[in-house]
Batch of 4 targets.
Target 1
Amino acid sequence: MRVLILILLSSQTQFTISSKLDLVYIDQPNEIINCFQLIDDVRENIATYNNETNKWLLKDGRQFIGGMCE
């Protein structure tokens, strides 16, 4: 089993080096073939792109920063 780790930023926070990031771990039952495509697919499903702020935002206000596979 592999794990997809999503990196999220709390709402109304400016992204800086010292920002506290939320990590969300999602178990993937199958072998991950393409981690980048999986991150894009998950982002499309959970976040909405905001043209004004140029950010991907979740419904709860958190900002989608990125992800990685482990």
Target 2
Amino acid sequence: MVTASVLAVAWGARDRTKPQPPKRTPVAEVPWLSQEAAAQIVGTDGTLGPLFANVTLGSLAPSGEERARIAEFARANKVAIDLEVVDDELVAIRFDVSYSGCCGYEGAEVLALRAHRPITGGGCVGGPERWVNAWTMTPGDGTFLHASVDINRVSFRWEQVLTTDEVLARADQVFDAETAEIARSAGERWRGIARQQFALELPYSFDSYDYDLWRPRNGIVITADRGRVAELSLSVRPDGEHTLGETLKGHWGRPSVRGSLWTWRKADRIIQVDVDEGSDATITMRRRAV
């Protein structure tokens, strides 16, 4: 009797169905940003798309209704759009999107082409062709675009392009300023180059690629001394109806001229430009010896 009971228990254990592991529900892949939505954000030439038709860089901050409309578009399309406002002025529009899935880089590369992502090498240049991962450009609609691609992520930042006179004014403003304060206000526009040397990116009309963004033509290269700007250099070019020489004289007055070298001696600084009318020029500004 006992033996029969033991056999029954053993048989029951053998007959018991082995539990099955729970079924795994596949993770739904987030849909890519559609071509229609991308066209609303950025034009095929890197300009601001129709989504931003009612906002103006360098003008008053967008209304609450415009902010809400743009925010709803960003939420619906799973992208990030930030309207940077300083002193009630719209100074920048930022866009950021990350493509999901195993091949998200494909979507990122296609979107980057709308902003004319450059390619280097090949042909007469030599070396293998490669896509540039960070670049700046002036699309021609009065804006300046800083764009970057990092595998599956695309980021754009639009600003109002500066005139040459505004760039000169910015150089005057940062000279002898505290580098820590410039870095705080500039954010990602500020980069370290070497010990006591920095680059401040400006929305100016030179295009740059990732291999020269560290010493940008569309910006100011700064040398610091004891935490303050002691020397700087920047490239400028003619714009509008005025020659570069006319713009420089209008900003700093009449220079001392020796050949093509123009010099201004101010109370705290010496400014020098090798001027060749009708072409680009490099300005250097140095602290005067005490």
Target 3
Amino acid sequence: MKENTKFYLVKNRSAGQVFYSVPDMNIRRHFAPGEMIKVSYEELLKLSNQPGGKSLMVNFLQIEEEKILKDFNISVQPEYFMNEQQVKDLLISGSLDAFLDCLDYAPAGVIDLVKELAIKIPLANYDKKDALKEKLGFNVDKILENKKAEEEEAKNPGGFVAETKTAEKTTTSTRPATRRTNVNYKKTEDTVK
């Protein structure tokens, strides 16, 4: 079987919708958050050669097949391979150093997952909350406070509820000169510690 007739699973691991088109193949893709679609090698190759295509593949989509990344000369950090369970494990029981490396090196889609799960779980570790606030301007406590206020308002329409606002600051992350940990998030039976 020729390489370009093989299909590979591609997942949108970001919190938002992902769209792309490959005009010369007459393809327009739409990925809902968390959706996985089988995509041909040829389509991925053409996407990687379009302006912004590689960035989309690195930051928002996940291709678990390392061969594709190597074929298209896409270099990724170990956090690229993190799945939802590994992010949960990192939030709940992972080391602070591994968490800081994640915040410094993970692609945007993984950072979206970290934020989403930090609220959903919710994140209890104060050092990790502080790191999220410092590095990303993402204040877990304020968001949970606002969420609770919204729930109270829904229970008591028209009643008085103090208004609180949380602003997320946009930051440009500067990576440390060296990684704090040596991790491997590729598919294995072991969980990340």
Target 4
Amino acid sequence: MWETRSVQLNVQLPEDMAAQAEEVQKTDPEFLSRVILYGLTRRSIYRHLKGKEGGHSVQDEAAAPAPS
């Protein structure tokens, strides 16, 4: 598919969700990787489309000075 690399994430979850995430990580570690990839892909697409709506890109937003 494409080149990948390992990253370490530290997230704060409610206790019950944390327990579920730990169990899934033990039983199906690829699942969490796919979930994160899916979420980041959706975010990237959303930001791209949002940038097109306003007539500027996300890069333009990042380069714009912060309002005072």
